[in-house]
Amino acid sequence: MTRPFGYFVHHQGRGHAERCAAIANALPPSRPLTIFCARDDIFPALPPHVEIVRLPSLFEPTGDEAPSLDWVPTPVTLHCAPLGWPGIRRAMATLTAWFDAADPALLICDVSAEIAQLARICSVPHVKVVQHGDRGDAGHQAAYDGAAGLLAPFHADLAQPEWSDAFLAKTCFAGGLGVDVRLPEREVARQRIGVAVEEELILVLSGGGGEGFAQAPLGVGARTRPSARWITIGKVQHDWHATEPANIEYRGWVDDAADYIAAADLVITSTGNTTCQQILAAGRPWLAVPEWRYFDEQHRKAEALAAAGVACVRPHLPSSAQGWSAALDEALAGHRPDAQRAMIDDAPADRVALWLETLATRLGAPLAAPDLPASLEPRPL
Fold first, then answer.
1. What residues does the Glycosyl transferase family 28 C-terminal domain cover (predicted)?
2. Which of 129, 173, 334, 358 could join 110 via S-S bond, C-beta 3.0 to 4.6 A?
């Protein structure tokens, strides 16, 4: 019987679950896959050989915690390991019981440094998903160093410059993993969302992992370019002091984000991984503005995009009309659609599935008997 893979999925945003589903659908049906996640309602369609096991959240309190233990410091090898949390104990017990019963060939971890280290402690090989950010701390390095392989859900040209040769050698890069890169024709998309063909459309897109951009600076931007139609999708933080021009509208969450991206003349987004892959695949003029994330993930991602020449980057939304004019002009003048689309690999899920299967085969292969020197060869008595 084929030994299963396990897959831990962080439930913030949508990118982790979408990557997992893409890989699950690309793995051979003979490979059982057990997904561990705090939510089971965030996944696209999964094949029959996949099951989902619900875990308690590792970071959302339920009221049963013991805050009196918070005075004990967290060691540098861990990030989120509060004491006295029954939910964390139950989650770890579920994982370790499955490790013992299932004897998995691999655990893919997307993402938790603690669970990656738990797999290693339990003698289970793991693949750690790599994200951008300042992750040179002891916790991340222990998870990376102990991994049988690393999986980066972006193109190799977006690697951070400080990553070592040894780090890169064990990494499978997969630009576009888990992202549907198909887009409708511009005219068709505009008809669907109610935008005239001749209008200049500036799209502001916020992903599902944060709180979105603030309203006030968007109002400044829209007033800077009054001839354009500005549409926002996703979250926007409302400011009481924002002065709203008539050319900006807020549509909130939509089910057809691809139509809006295809229709846009210029896109303004944060730098979450899924959002980045969507805009790169579309090849649109792009103003990329990182949001706050742990370990400065989006700031390091933005730096990688700028270094690759595939986005105009600002550390925050421009705060003046002059700043907005300069940023929008730069995004349009420096647009390199071919370079953007080159960041999306061909059939990334298939490549990752093959890499995982090859890695599992290598991990399960018996060691060849060593060649002994003649002096150590057994001799008849």
1. 242-313
2. 129
